[in-house]
Structure prediction request, 293 residues.
Amino acid sequence: VIAYKFLRAGAEGPFTGFAWPLPADDGEPGAWVSGDCLRGACASGVHACRPSDLPIWLCDELWVAELAGDVVHARSKVVAPRGRLVRRVAEWTPDASAQLSEACARRARRHASAVLRASGLSAAEEELHAFSLDEMADADSPAPRAGARVSAALGYASDAAMVTRAGGPAASVAYIAVRAAMHAADSAAAGARERQWQARWMRDRLSLA
Amino acid sequence: VVSHDDLTCQELVELINEYLEEELSPDERTRFEEHLVYCDPCVNYVGQMRRTISLVGSLKEEHLDPAARDELIAAFRGWKAQRT
Prediction:
């Protein structure tokens, strides 16, 4: 089974600190790793992502991993008795990560727009759309006297813009966009749809299968 | 992919001992680590806890200055007396 694995710089497990064996220069995959090689609770097996899980586990390096044995599908990942790194996804770069942040910040603004529109604040919605992301990070609220629901929606959009402008983690902006979507629709399903949108963005941008 | 049962920072703080002692269920552990992906302050907190445990674990009784040891014992006795 082919899956994906996000690792810290240097092919290190983000939670275990495990140094994954790298593929050879001739393209031969890295050595097999079993749960026994991993620390403590990760001894249950090798954890990896399905394409739909990718936005949840964003990290420095993205690798294609091969899994062997019975693969168990869990909440936001797959777990297998053994796995190895096949190749690094070269398209996942700091620049791609920054682009994902920006895309997610725009989505958070779009969700805020929906709340403004639903609240009959079309002038404020137009004002929000006129802001660049940079401007939005500093701008005064376009609807300062609106209620808590509008304020929270604008807060998500502003937070996403600020983290993006500061070069903060794409994972944080992606999460803010998920919360913004849930808030705008008042539904957990909207958060899942936002993750699906992010996964599609990654699939297209990174040319994943 | 669900998001409605994300861990809050407060819940993460409450679960950190079980996480570090590897006593969380697989689902709880996944939720815990999902939170760490997007929350830098909690990543720092977990790192501080790991370092504290590592440092304290390397301390032996003889490393303690006798005066500091007596002060600690007195403080614990005082605390215990207040609770009883």
Observations:
- The helical segments of chain B are 9-20, 26-38, 40-57, 66-83.
- Chain B touches chain A at residues 1-4, 22, 24, 26-27, 29-31, 33-34, 36-40 (CB under 8 Å).
- The CA atoms of residues 37 and 43 of chain B lie 8 Å apart.
